[in-house]
Amino acid sequence: MKALLIAAGIFTATTAVVQAETLTVYAPDYFTSEWGPGPTIEAEFEKVCDCDLDFVPGDLLPRIMLEGQNTRADIVIGLNTDVTAKARSTGLFADHGQDNGKLELPIEWTDTVFLPFDWAYVSFIYDTTKIDTPPASFDDLRSMPRDQKIVIQDPRSSISGLALVLWVKAVYGDDAEAFWSDLAPRILTVTKGWSEAYGLFTDGEAPMVLSYNTSPAYHIAFEDDVTKQAAIFSDGHYGFFELAAKTSTTDNPELADQFMAFVLSDTFQNAIPMTNFSYPSAQPSSEWPEVFANLPAPDKALFFTENEAEALRAEAIEEWRRALSQ
Amino acid sequence: MASRAVSITSAGLVTALVAIPLFAVFSRAGGVASLGAGDWSALRFTVWQASLSALLSCAFAIPAARALHRQRFWGREALVTVLGAPFILPVIVAILGLLAVFGREGLLSQALMFVGLPRIHIYGLHGILLAHVFFNLPLAIRLILQGWQDVPSERFRLAAQLGLGPLAMLRVVEWPVLKKSVPGAFLVIFVVCLSSFAVALTLGGGPKATTVELAIYQAFRFDFDIGKAATLAVLQLVFVGVAAAVLLRLVGAPRADVGLGRDQVFLRKSSRITTALDAGMIALVAVFLMGPILAIVWSGVFELTNLPASVFRAAGHSLTVALVSTGLCIAFALPLATFRAGQMVSLFGFALSPLVLGTGLFLLIQPYANPFELALVVTCVTNALMALPFAVRAIGPAFSQINADYARTADMLSLLGGARWRWLYLPRLRRPIGFSAGLAAALSMGDLGVIVLFADPDRATLPLQMYRLMSAYQMDAASGAALLLLVLSLGLFWIFDRGGRRGVGS
Questions:
Q1: Mutate to test the interface with A, among B44, B201, B312, B448 (most CBs of A within 10 A)
Q2: Are residues A229 and A281 in the same domain?
Q3: Are B130 and B2 found together in one domain?
């Protein structure tokens, strides 16, 4: 009898363990690292969900495409608008079920599948000790002194590089290639990804680099360094939105829904600025940390919907490539 | 013969590790993709820059290796070890180190401007070549030096006794050495440079320097056109195959060498001019290679004490991976080093784009297991594959030489199978095995390879942790992590390499 009780005890204990459900979240490496928002978000969500949140780091799009319907992901977080057309076409994502009206973005958001959790303006960051008068528009940039160099990322391998060619396309349209031809001699070099370019900038190799207008917040907040500033262009800046989505294949739909709602909560939103160095998507600027609220920002956001971006991408990259290959 | 069966099994395994994942990618993609004009021009550029890079690396390595072989000086051994550093650096670290010296704001430009000269403009084909020579010169020097060291010292002594002049010396003694080691060195460097991407792009200054690997990355990451990625990867393999077939033919069969002495003692009656030239060459190479390395040390050394604990944990994971993949690599390399086609086979694992290899493995594993739980296993195997051509390259010529010298004697003694390995090969292969193990370990430490698809959520490797620091704007801490990586890689290399040389003489 005793043995039976013990057996029953063990049985209930095991089922209790089994019942603690797991929410699998695919996220980019920078997101899940100990310096990114991942650890805070994991701890905070686990407090309220009675579940185990499991981050899986890595490249999102190729992984989802490879896995298809067999994906283990319940949530995918960290895609951006310039590649979502491809992700959406898989039919792997379900409606996010959240009220887009809660978002505080510089553009109107109507997508019911991909939900922004943070954003920033694509911008050129310059070193104030080396550049006295920063360019105030793309026309200023293309007529900078020739020895004032910038480093950019390759739109064929980097998502910020792709955002730049779309930004130029949004400003210049059919004249984009002429712009690139003018800018070419001022481009010191093109890098594979953001890290190489930003490393060249902080090492002093180039006085200006393609990044985000929120990048200086890191230097101000953690290094007391105010010499890195975003050059604000009167043309308006391209908006960069990072997105979360729920998979349609999830076997934990309620838990996934709970997480999607959590994305817009203050707990989640508060974690974003100082770990991901970007604006939270569902808070007015009055609720941002002071250093973010004080950052210079453009008056106008430029943006292509994912279909527009998908339609323009090949052409915009080819114009860039032609002009820079001269 | 049992050893023949082992060789064939090993070759079969390596071929399967390359061919099956490739096949998996093609079958998923539904066939071969057609290529555009841009892809073909990327291919032309890739082959062109890789050929030039390999040519230049060998051209500089020949006099440097000769100087290092001829001259004995204090700290020579340490210098030979440290000179290997560029080859094992993670790409991003090497780029920043190179530009700290040769960049627009680098030391060299600063010095030039100080004396009123214009700064150097490093970005362009010459920049790519500079970077590739920086990476590969150490490897070329070591492979060619190895060739020299495998020549019985009697031959140098005899040449000296006969009073051979420099030209006769070149023809009789040195040419056969070079003929045996240079084509192989050229080949592996050509293959290394064929897969260049971040370096070629950054130092090349932009899209003019588009390589095949970039096209593969783009196809994989943005377009998710894995058929195209795999088609490009196969083209890369074809180039490697053709280059290997041509170059390995040049090497020719080894002939029996008279003389057994491995004492490496010979008359060093170099003239003053020779000594001065050698010293100049060694100094030049040392300054060229050590400049950027010192820049990396300088930018990281003050950060070492501030590194977060996770960086050291990551270092531990990397060390484990490195040791396991070193064992695997040597286990594959020894049988492959025993026959000429083995050298070709060993190249394929390295020449196949890690993205395509990773994709194939992912597709193969995914139906049966969670790929993330196998991340470290996959990393160990692929890292072993990556180091294989270098190991086979280092061990192969020494093995043929042993056979040329002793095979008949050993046959007469019926020294076969395991006993032959135990008594004949292994003791005499100690040096190349040590060198290969060191290289494999160091390469594995710095490699990110297939991490894009196989990142272990709980066990990051050191290079990955370094990239994470960079993405979190912590460039200074990343420099510290880079230095730690450099020290650990070099340390591993040194331990293995030295282990191989102990009692053999260098």
A1: B201
A2: no
A3: no
d(CA B128, CA B456): 33
Note the pLDDT tens digit of each residue in B414-441.
Answer: 877 778 888 888 888 888 899 899 989 9
SS3 A92: coil
A29 touches chain B (CB under 8 A): yes
Can you give the residue range of the structural domain that contains B322?
1-31+302-506
CA dist A37 and A23 (Å) reads 17
pLDDT band at A10 (very low <50, low <70, confident <90, very high): very low
Report the alpha-carbon distance of residue B289 to residue B283 in Å, rounded: 10
Q: How many domains does chain B have?
A: 2
* Average pLDDT of every residue of chain B: 84
Instruction: Answer yes or no: do B15 and B70 share one domain.
Output: no
Mean pLDDT (whole number) for B218-236:
88
Q: Indicate the helix (H) or strand (E) that contains A120.
A: strand A115-127
CA dist B410 and B415 (Å) reads: 5
Does the beta-carbon distance from A29 to B105 stay under 8 Å? no
B165 touches A: beta carbon within 8 Å: no
B146-158: average pLDDT: 75
Question: In chain A, which residue's Cα lies nearest the Cα of B465?
Answer: A33
Domain-ending residue, one of B292, B310, B340: B292
**Tens of pLDDT along A64-92?**
888 888 898 999 999 988 788 888 988 99
Among A181, A192, A312, A319, most B C-beta atoms within 10 A, so best to mutate, is A192
CB contact under 8 A, B470 and A206: no
A133 touches chain B (CB under 8 A): no
pLDDT value for A176: 96
Among the ranges given (A227-241, A279-293, B454-468), the one the predictor scored with the smallest mean pLDDT: B454-468
* Total-model pTM: 0.88
CA distances A4 to A1, A7, A9, A17, B202, Å, are 5, 5, 8, 20, 69
List A residues 72-91 in contact with B (Cβ-Cβ < 8 A): 72, 83, 86
Residues of the domain holding A220:
120-238+298-324
